[in-house]
Please model this.
Amino acid sequence: MSNRVSWLDNAVFYEIYPQSFKDTDSDGIGNINGITEKLGYIKELGCNAIWINPCFLSPFGDAGYDVEDYCTVAPRYGTNDDLIRLFGEAHKLGMHVILDLVPGHTSVQHRWFKESMKAEKNEFTDRYVWTDSIWEDTKGIPVISGISDRDGACVVNFFSIQPALNYGFYNPDPNKKWQQPMDAEGPIATREALKDVMRFWLSAGCDGFRVDMAGSLVKNDPEQKGTIALWQDVRAFLDEEFPNAAMVSEWGEPDKSIIGGFHMDFLLHFGPSHYNDLFRCEEPYFSKDGKGTAKEFIAKYKENYEKTGGKGLICIPSGNHDMGRLSQRLDEDELRLAFAFLLSMPGAPFIYYGDEIGMRYVEGLKSKEGGFGRTGSRSPMQWDKTVNAGFSAASPEKLYIPLDSDKNRPDAESQMNDENSLRSEVKRLIALRMSKTALQSRGKIEFLSDGYPMVYKRSDENGAITVVINPSAEKAEVLCADANKIIYTVGGKAELRDGKIFADGCTAVFAE
Ligand code: BGC
Model:
């Protein structure tokens, strides 16, 4: 179990896809100095932490999740010094920055992989998971083959340009010598190399990591016991050298990840979470039609919450670079309620850049750098009404990904000047969360209703807040004996009388 990193208790993260945030050198692609320039914007919104997608040297076959050198910022984003300056400037504003750590695989361009492809045995021969013979039947496990002098094929971790790093096998097949146990020399060296990468950036001032595919490291590990043990070893290293480093896993099984020493785990949009039932299906729960359901989402959430001993350190994102935009199926009123929910749940909320202004999924874009259907959620941030929406001074055809071409596209500046805008609503909801510890990461949650409306109570030693989320157009009436005043309302009107909350359709209510 990890020590507590106190700033996570009230963290509200802003996820930045660096390619598309702000370009300060007019080459059509965002950069680190652009992020530094916009720290004030993020702070003004109320977010106090940032997660930056991989910004390291890479051939960009998977938008940087194919790392060529973990310790060098990609020149298109700037230099290591720029990133270190960003850490410093963020800290001056009381903000924290976590980087994206991709421990499961590298790019085929990484020096480790190039060395491991050589026929002669060397330091990196066992850095990746290689079979002994190129002809070996891997029983459907995807491999890279036929590209090296070395005999054998290399197991793939995601796309076929992302060879799997070797952390060993939990249950190695005794007839397959290449399936090394976790404590063999090669896997131990890989693990130490991972610690060196973490040490490098933590010493440079970064505040922690979002860990990509954190559950994928040890192979043949059906219950992930080996992977958990591996992370516990990393935890021991962090406790020793960097006790204040925050660790957030992309795992989707908070019981495993928290035992492994992570502070928080992401709720994944795929797999069994039912996250998409809320926002991204034919009939989302958050639609005014009121035909959706949150029942399975809540059941699964509760199951995970209980498995973590009621710690509930589950981070629910508004979106991310891997899924459609939140606004794809929800209109502005519905988005407000989605944010009322997202910003009042336990665990640290993550706002994907541009979701706070309702940026749209850009349809019909050609895939960029392994984005495929994800490309439409990765378009440039819309800052204002100037050329290229203030993202870049490059000519429009040079932009890394085209902008949303809709002439009514939302922009940050207009919304900052309008107190009725979605962004102003998000800002108020963040401020509300910051003012009530019960609404923050560690406050308890108890669900009182899983239909329309959804009702839950958040509480801690400082008090209790009842949250009523009523996305449907129908009015709602909720028994609420223990609250005596409404502290915030989103959408329509609400009233607290005779021990009941009466809420208009498409309205959220906070009462204490
Ligand atoms: C990242 C993706 C990436 C994949 C492989 C994911 O979880 O979020 O963007 O393609 O890992 O690294």
User: Anything to note?
Assistant: The first strand starts at residue 13 and ends at 16.
